[in-house]
Amino acid sequence: MTRRRWRDLTPWQRTGLVAAGAVQLALAVGAWVDLAHRRPAEVTGRKGVWAAVIAVNWVGPLAYMRWGRRR
């Protein structure tokens, strides 16, 4: 099985990958900005741990938005 390279992808596949990467980056940046502006009392757990969790692809930012913030 050969590895697919960027040049082997169709234009639609390239667009999809770039869009998915942009959404993933936007989620992470949004979560990190939110985390930076919250007081420690407004975060479930330690802020340092959540900062590391946010770095995990799609799961991290979504987990922080769901379980990391206190109301």
From TrEMBL:
Keywords: Cell membrane, Membrane, Transmembrane, Transmembrane helix. The keyword Coiled coil does not apply. It is found in: Cell membrane. It is a multi-pass membrane protein. Its main location: membrane. The chain crosses the membrane at residues 12-33, 48-67. Residues 26-69 form the Cardiolipin synthase N-terminal domain. GO terms for cellular component: plasma membrane. InterPro entries: CLS_N (IPR027379). This is Phospholipase_D-nuclease N-terminal.
